[in-house]
């Protein structure tokens, strides 16, 4: 899915995107400023959560990165299981419409 296009086309009114910094620091120098810069370049509405033991437990078993999860307003997972399944715009829209 072209997440940037979706967000630019009004998606920020329908969904909050949180990126988990899962491997930052595991494969080289940990650089919070580089990570923030990359996210700002991709789309400024994306929030970044740094990996921690609690985050890793909450998202386990995370099989592939990137992985997509969708939560309802109560925090219940309605889509995603840690696999790298393609999530196109049409499917995302259908899932979001079902949450209204």
As a percent range, the share of strand residues is 5-15%
Q: How many domain modules?
A: 1
How many distinct beta strands?
4
Tally of DSSP helical segments: 4
What structural class is derived from the secondary structure elements? Answer: alpha+beta
Helix content: 25-40%
Plain-language structure description:
The chain has 100 residues and is an alpha+beta fold. It has one domain (3-98). Helices cover 34% and strands 13% of the residues. The protein has helices at residues 3-8, 32-42, 53-59, 89-98, and strands spanning 18-21, 47-50, 70-71, 77-79. Strands 1-2 form a two-stranded parallel ribbon. The model has no long low-confidence stretch (mean pLDDT 79).
Give a quick set of tags describing it:
alpha+beta; 4 helices; 100 residues; two-stranded parallel sheet
Topology:
Blueprint: H1 3-8, E1 18-21, H2 32-42, E2 47-50, H3 53-59, E3 70-71, E4 77-79, H4 89-98
Parallel strand pairs: 1-2
Antiparallel strand pairs: 3-4
